[in-house]
Model the fold of this input.
Amino acid sequence: MTTIKKGYIEVYEILIANKDKKIKSILDQLIPIFESKQRDKNHFEDDDGLHVFCYYHKVWELTSQVEYGKKVNTATGLNSMCKVGTNQWTKQQREFKRDKAELLTLVANGELAIENINSKIEELEEVKDSIVPLFEHHHNEALQDPRQLEIDE
Ligand SMILES: [Zn+2]
Done:
């Protein structure tokens, strides 16, 4: 008898029970399982309180230590990013838009060669997608996650 990994049992059973059917016909059964699994991974509670995997910082944050804004219709009732992360994310998106729009002006003024515009956009995208870490204890060693980035000193 094969041993099925814990998180896959439900999916495995549906697949076995429907092995001769077309995927399309069982998709409606499978999607909610995957979706709830995905959602579960972004928050959990333990003795310390509620932890959220911050969408901006890409680390687990304890909501009693890191401030979160409220958001209706979410599993936690909180935003998917902490307040600082939300502000930083919004700022980076705004600056990216602004800087990207300025590139054409630079080209028009002869300050940027048209053939360099793509590499310039790549540079701007890197800045946009970069993460400004919050503070040191933000990086929770005990809750290492594959998505958690190595934060340089
Ligand atoms: Zn955060």
